[in-house]
């Protein structure tokens, strides 16, 4: 939940950006954009709810059903409507209050808003010109403040402990799903919730988005753990790899190539660098080693309130990275039917380069078949 001062600070920054981009109105749905800007995260269903921001006004279209609960999070005005009357009149009043009744206004739409909400708003306006939040709200959200840094760091420190507990619990015959249970239990014991978890034994690791299943751990098997929790409103995300038994030369080679790719991406990541250049740095290492066609995804994604948000570290991204951006560096090599190796760090971009959130080393975690590591 935002303090009133934090909401006003973020509104001020947004209005400055609106002036710079000649934006007349910003419209946000019940999303992480709304939560970041206002502290309000109302129940999302078919009832239209929006936050409209203009230079001299900001207010909500709010179902009366949700008004009392949302009021605890904000002192911004509500234009409420009841089920038996519909939202049309309240939306008209809100647009008038925001001085958004002119023709051809420039409107920024929350790209995560329900389509019917967005169309209802556009239909109520006179020939608006619309775009998404890339150069306004999303741009501002990408630069994390100190409080956000602290929350993300705390989530990652907790995540480190969960991953270490998972490796310590490995034994022959245990299933992927049981190791996920170990991770989830660590989160719960420390006041966090499971955001996602992918435990991969052997060939499961060759699927970048594998769901933990009933595969049992056997001797001489590769292990990939990609997991994250949510603590105080912000998530963690990390991938580490290990081996149950003695890794062969192929696995060791692939692991070392991926580690070199991480190091190459970290070395080039600085304010002013294009996102695609970080992707290229990692991809060039993997391609030079002969595994280019086995690197199946972009190098990274942003992280904040959402576990995936801008900036995206991809070969087609011309986004210029700035100080305060938080994103992943996670190259991988996936050998179908055998194993996958992905090493992931979440970093915040500082003036001199990236700071890694996790304190857990990326080294190969080798676990003896008697359970000792």
From TrEMBL:
Record carries keyword rRNA processing: no
Keyword Hydrolase: yes
InterPro entries for the chain: Creatin/AminoP/Spt16_N (IPR029149), Creatinase/aminopeptidase-like (IPR036005), Creatinase_N (IPR000587), Pept_M24 (IPR000994), Peptidase_M24B (IPR050659), Peptidase_M24B_aminopep-P_CS (IPR001131)
Family matches, as Pfam families: Creatinase_N, Peptidase_M24
Superkingdom field: Bacteria
GO molecular function: aminopeptidase activity; metal ion binding; metallopeptidase activity
Keywords of this entry: Aminopeptidase, Hydrolase, Metal-binding, Metalloprotease, Protease
Biological processes per GO annotation: proteolysis
Domain Peptidase M24: residue ranges: 151-350
Span of domain Creatinase N-terminal: 10-125
Family stated for the protein in its record: Belongs to the peptidase M24B family.
Protein name: Xaa-Pro aminopeptidase
Organism: Yoonia ponticola
């Amino acid at each position: 939940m935002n303090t009133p001062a934090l909401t006003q600070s973020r509104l001020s920054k947004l209005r400055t950006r609106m002036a710079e981009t000649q934006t007349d109105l910003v419209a946000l749905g019940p999303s992480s954009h709304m939560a970041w800007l206002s502290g309000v995260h109302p129940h999302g269903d078919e009832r239209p709810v929006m936050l409209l921001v203009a230079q001299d006004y900001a207010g909500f279209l709010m179902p009366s059903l949700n008004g009392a609960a949302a009021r605890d999070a904000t002192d911004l005005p509500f234009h409420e409507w009841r089920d038996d009357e519909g939202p049309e009149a309240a939306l008209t009043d809100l647009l008038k209050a925001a001085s958004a009744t002119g023709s051809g206004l420039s409107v920024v739409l929350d790209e995560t808003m329900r389509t019917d909400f967005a169309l209802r708003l556009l239909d109520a306006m006179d020939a608006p010109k619309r775009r998404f939040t890339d150069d306004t709200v999303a741009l501002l959200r990408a630069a994390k403040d100190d409080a956000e840094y602290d929350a993300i760091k705390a989530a990652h420190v907790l995540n480190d402990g969960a991953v270490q507990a998972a490796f310590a619990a490995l034994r022959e015959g245990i299933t992927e799903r049981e190791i996920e249970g170990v991770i989830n239990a660590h989160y719960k014991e420390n006041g966090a919730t499971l955001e996602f978890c992918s435990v991969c034994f052997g060939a499961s690791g060759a699927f970048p988005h594998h769901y933990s299943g009933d595969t049992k751990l056997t001797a001489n098997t590769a292990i990939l753990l990609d997991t994250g929790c949510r603590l105080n409103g912000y998530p963690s995300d990390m991938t580490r790899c290990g081996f149950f038994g003695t890794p062969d030369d192929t696995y060791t080679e692939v692991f070392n190539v991926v580690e070199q790719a991480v190091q190459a991406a970290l070395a080039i990541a600085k304010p002013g660098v294009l996102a695609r250049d970080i992707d290229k740095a990692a991809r060039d290492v993997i391609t030079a080693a002969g595994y280019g066609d086995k690197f199946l995804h972009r190098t990274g994604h942003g992280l904040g309130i959402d576990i995936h948000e801008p900036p995206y570290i991809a070969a087609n991204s011309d986004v210029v990275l700035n100080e305060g951006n938080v994103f992943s560096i996670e190259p991988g090599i996936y050998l179908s039917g055998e194993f996958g190796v992905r090493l992931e760090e979440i970093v915040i971009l500082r003036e001199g380069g990236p700071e890694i959130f996790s304190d857990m080393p990326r080294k190969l975690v080798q676990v003896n078949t008697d359970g000792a590591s």
